[in-house]
Write a structure and sequence with these properties.
The chain has about 150 residues and is mostly helical. Helices cover about 60% and strands about 0% of the residues.
Length: about 150
């Protein structure tokens, strides 16, 4: 009888420690993920994981999001619309220097070339603006860190 009671105590201790470890790890990872997403101004989609969802996930059960109809596996993130490709788009992957060998019209006429240059210019301006914004944010954080110390 003493052996059985000892075994039950060990099993209950293991279950308690495992549950607490799972709970604290899940909560810490979830809060870290939220803060990481918030630093990039990304909103958390869906419901945050609750206690039962964490245990269901640990035991291999499906969470409430997995039970919803219409949740198929796709390569696109949730809420992403299918991208519309322009008719005059040129593939950049797998094409050699000669467009005629692959059967792709490279569109060397002046109007398409000018349009492409305008798109590139706008993209470069957008990238420069984003770089300046990120640099300003980084400098603000560095200055804030220096004032705290």
């Amino acid at each position: 009888m003493k052996l059985l009671m000892w075994f039950v105590k060990i099993v209950l201790t293991v279950l308690l420690v495992s549950s607490l470890t799972l709970l604290t790890t899940g909560l810490i990872v979830q809060s870290y993920a939220k803060s990481l997403l918030a630093s990039f101004n990304i909103q958390w989609e869906g419901q945050p994981m609750g206690l039962t969802a964490m245990f269901q996930g640990a035991l291999g059960g499906k969470t409430s999001e997995g039970n919803k109809p219409g949740n198929g596996t796709t390569d696109q993130p949730t809420g992403a619309d299918e991208e519309q490709v322009p008719e005059d788009a040129v593939s950049v992957m797998g094409n050699g220097a000669e467009g005629s060998e692959s059967g792709v019209d490279t569109g060397n006429d002046a109007s398409q070339g000018a349009a492409r240059m305008e798109v590139r210019k706008r993209a470069q301006e957008q990238i420069q603006l984003e770089d300046q914004t990120l640099a300003a944010q980084a400098m603000g954080r560095i200055q804030a860190h220096r004032t705290v110390q």
